[in-house]
Amino acid sequence: MHGELTVFDIDWLSMWCVLARQNFGHVFMPDNLNIPPYVPEVPQTEKNCEAMDDNLHVSWVLGSDYIDLELSGRIDVGEYLSFGISGSETSTRMVGADVTVVWNDRIQGVMAVDYDLNAYAQCSQGTGACPDTMVTGSTNDITDISSLMKDGITTIAFRRKLDTGDANDKVIHTDRDVYSAWSIGLINSNGVVAKHHTVPRGNAKLNFGREAVNNCPSFPDTTLAPVTPWQPILLKGDENNTVFVARIGQAGGRRGYTALTGQVSWGIAWYIDDKLIPVLKLQRGVNYTFIVEGGNDPYQSAQYHPFYITDDPIGGYAQKNVQQRQEVQVLAGVDFDSQGRPYPTTAGRYCEYVSNGVDQSEQSETFDEYFQTLTLECQPGEPAQLNWTPEELGTYYYQCYTHQYLGWKIEVVDDVNKPPQTSTPPVVGGGVTLAVSYLYFTFLCAYGLILLL
Q1: Which of 117-126, 147-156, 285-294 has the highest mean pLDDT?
Q2: Are 208 and 174 in contact (CB under 8 A)?
Q3: Residue 98: which of 112, 111, 110, 83 has the closest Cα?
Q4: Burial of 140 (0-12, 13-18, 19+ CB in 10 A)
Q5: Given strand 66-73, what is the order of strands in its sheet?
Q6: Burial of 439 (C-beta count, 10 Å sphere; 0-12/13-18/19+)
Q7: How far is CA 397 from CA 88, 231, 269, 310, 401, in A?
Q8: CA 77 to CA 97: how far, in whole Å?
Q9: Helix/strand/coil (H/E/C) assignment for every residue in the chain
Q10: Residue 425 has pLDDT above 90, yes or no
């Protein structure tokens, strides 16, 4: 901007056509705009840089007892970059890794959070891919956070001590090669990482104490081509169809869970009768049986998905605090002990639809085509059974008790074969509603143009 003008000095911006003397669009600048601070660029002679991936560069400068790191990539708001020390001293391994996750949050602005990857699972009660603040005895040891967006590339800088003293943080050694771990993925609406979509294809190691060398090329254009979401699936249940089988399976990438629900997926989701998160249309007063094979070992967090029914579109009842539990209703699959503590009641053996090699959701135009690339793998044991008779009309959800964003909708109706009613807009003067609205809109535009002139 010119001179000392900043975005905080501007009330609104308009795209104005001089020839047509028309306002082609405008935006108002809110008073509480959260703008990340400017990151002063460190001279390349002092900065190390290595490309972990076409879409992730890691730069660093060593201090006396700390390291300044920058993670750069072509990412969107709500998409994260993560980098840190591997969970193994002899290879790159995600489980056991100590990483920092960075992203630009739509509400809180730039974020850099210390993470403990203690299990290959969504974070639940301190187990899984968890922020240090959700793990007993750990703290967030990341400071001096700043962000810069330039030419479509987001760079987020932060500082961390080489030895934080935190039992769950790894010491960053500067006298040897160190194996690292990194990933790229999406942030859930609750501000916690979802399953990555990009990870190392082999081992990655760095020597943080080396002489400064910039080995990072220019970023290529890694913009993904748009894909067509799969069609939603509807399963009906009436007096003649009362049994459903629930198992775990792959979420279907950009075409599947996220596209169908508008929510970020961990990477797995419920399959009902071999279908990815179908909408269940059930009849009030009919007793239904759900045969559940979502895992029954609570010590295997990644494969422990008790099934329950609720009015909560997010799920993960075990992760909620007392107040959050009071805000949702549980209809089946959860009981309470004598002290009011909840526990799941429907946890059978573990069955999962796994990919035959590399996930083929991007290449599969339909879910049926994608399903042919999956194989069902089941552990020994017996399934669990949940019986439920819906008593009230409305929208409910089948969910996972321990993890969020695995399930989807149940529509309870009186007649599953009756098509939904569609509301008809009021007709004014024999069907001229649209014309009247258009004339009124034209008048407002003309009046606004006169004010602008």
Answers
A1: 285-294
A2: yes
A3: 83
A4: middle
A5: 48-53, 56-62, 66-73, 153-161, 143-150
A6: exposed
A7: 40, 19, 13, 5, 12
A8: 25
A9: CCCCCCHHHCCEEEEEECCCCEEEEEEECCCCCCCCCCCCCCCHHHCEEEEEECCEEEEEEECCCEEEEEEEECCCCCEEEEEEECCCCCCCCCCCCEEEEEEEECCCEEEEEEEEECCCCECECCECEEEHHHCCCCCCCCEEEEEEEECCEEEEEEEEECCCCCCCCCCCCCCCCEEEEEEEEEECCCCCEEEEEECCCCCCEECCCCCCCECCCCCCCCCCCCCCCCCCCEEEECCCCCEEEEEEEECCHHHCHHHHHCCCCCCEEEEECCEECCEEEEECCCCEEEEEEECCCCCCHHHCCCEEEECCCCECHHHCCHHHHHCCCEEECEEECCCCCEEECCCCCEEEEEECCCCCCCCCCCHHHHHCCEEEEECCCCCEEEEECCCCCEEEEEEECCCECCCEEEEEECCCCCCCCCCCCCCCCCCCHHHHHHHHHHHHHHHHHHHHC
A10: no
For residue range 84-125, list pLDDT tens digits in order. Answer: 999 999 999 999 999 999 998 877 889 999 999 999 888 888
* pLDDT for res 37: 55
- The confidence score (pLDDT) of residue 20 equals 54
The string over 76-102, giving b where at least 16 C-beta atoms fall within 10 Å of a residue's C-beta and e elsewhere, is eebbbbbbbbbbeeeebbbebbbbbbb
Q: 63-74 pLDDT, tens per residue?
A: 999 999 999 998
> Hunting for tokens 């600048």 — which residue is that?
29
Please give the pLDDT value at position 230: 97
Q: What is the mean pLDDT of residues 389-395?
A: 97
Overall residue count recorded for the chain in this entry:
453
What is the pairing mode between strands 288-293 and 243-250? parallel
pLDDT tops 70 at residue 440: no
The CA–CA distances, whole Å, from 276 to 98, 233, 409 equal 33, 8, 12
> CA nearest 160: which of 137, 174, 176, 142?
142
Residue 317 has pLDDT above 90, yes or no: yes
pLDDT band for position 19 (50/70/90)?
Answer: low
Distance of alpha carbon 219 from alpha carbon 70, whole angstroms? 15
Other CB atoms within a 10 A radius of the CB of residue 197 amount to: 15
- Vertex 103: Cα angle to 97 and 104 (nearest 5): 165
